[in-house]
Specification:
This protein is α/β, with parallel strands linked by helices and 256 residues long. The protein has a single domain, classed as NAD(P)-binding Rossmann-like Domain (Rossmann fold, 3-Layer(aba) Sandwich), CATH 3.40.50.720. It is built from 8 helices and 7 strands; from the N terminus they run βαβαβαβαβαβαααβ. Helix 4 links the parallel strand 4 and strand 5. Helix 3 packs parallel to helix 4 and helix 4 runs parallel beside helix 5. Bound molecules: nicotinamide-adenine-dinucleotide. It holds the Pfam family adh_short_C2.
Length: 256
């Protein structure tokens, strides 16, 4: 079944991890997909891999989500290449594990700029076109860290909580224009970001608190994103979908 056939999607941060799995899944579901990422080499190698299937429609565009002109140019290029976009997924993000009292002003600003302002800029550029066409699906990749007071995550958690709030306001304003806006809050997922940031002790502590008893896969987040991006989710907006193996129901807080 190709639920996204004929749709045009932009995936920010689509070169790696969760974003890359979303790109791959959306291409399999029949969408034309633009990978918008600051790491163009990684994005282009994913394009090459996916183009082994001659039917795949996928391009790579280098951009930084924190720079308004680059965001606008990227969305204009997608419109020129494929039309749309009908779907935006904001997966570009950076992590930071640092106590509130230790977090520098620059670190705070950088994390907020990529994780929150980046989604604002991309959402605005895409939604302006969606509103004109009366159709759109926006999926913001937030985090379980955005709904709990986890020690050591001041900037990251604030950026992800802000993204949930932005999702709700966008949904409230855009719903009457045929545009739905939802967030996904993944729990711990195996990606390059967590492989770098999660020590063995952190991994063990998380797994002990996840009812399903393991880290999630990027493919499991991609399946949730594809659902929210599809026709089937037509009456779901302003929602936050947990893809966390049940972790939010137990206790997110590990103090490591
Ligand atoms: P990742 O590091 O594997 O991928 C992030 C991608 O974003 C990279 O390709 C990177 O080049 C790109 N990127 C970073 N800054 C950018 C910028 N300024 N402009 C354009 N592209 C930029 O990370 P991931 O683990 O796949 O995480 C993806 C998203 O999911 C992030 O927003 C992250 O906060 C969120 N998340 C991840 C987990 C997890 O366990 N991995 C859990 C919850 C939420």
């Amino acid at each position: 079944m190709q639920d996204l056939k004929g749709r045009v999607a932009v995936v920010t941060g689509g070169a790696s991890g969760i974003g890359a799995a979303i790109v791959e899944h959306f291409v399999q579901q029949g969408a034309a997909v633009a990978i918008a990422d600051r790491d163009i080499d990684l994005a282009e190698s994913l394009v090459k891999k996916l183009q082994a299937d001659a039917a795949a429609k996928v391009i790579a565009l280098r951009m930084d989500v924190t720079i308004g002109q680059e965001v606008e140019a990227m969305v204009a290029q997608v419109e020129h290449a494929f039309g749309g976009p009908d779907i935006l997924v904001t997966s570009a993000g950076i992590g930071l594990r640092k106590d509130f009292l230790e977090t520098t002003f620059d670190e705070w600003n950088r994390v907020l700029a990529v994780n929150l302002t980046g989604a604002f800029l991309c959402g605005q550029a895409a939604a302006r076109r969606m509103v004109k066409r009366g159709y759109g699906r926006i999926v913001n990749i937030s985090s379980g860290a955005g709904v709990r007071g986890i020690p050591g995550r001041a900037a990251y958690a604030a950026s992800k909580a802000g993204l949930i709030s932005l999702t709700q306001v966008m949904a409230a304003e855009l719903g009457s224009h045929g545009v739905t806006v939802n967030a996904i809050t993944p729990g711990p997922i195996d990606t390059p970001l967590t492989q770098e940031m999660h020590t063995g002790a952190i991994r063990a502590a998380y797994v002990g608190r996840i009812p399903i008893g393991r880290y999630g896969s990027t493919r499991e987040v991609a399946a949730a994103a594809a659902f929210l991006a599809s026709e089937q989710a037509s009456y779901i907006t302003a929602d936050t979908l947990q893809v966390d193996g049940g972790m939010a129901a137990t206790n997110y807080i590990i103090n490591i």
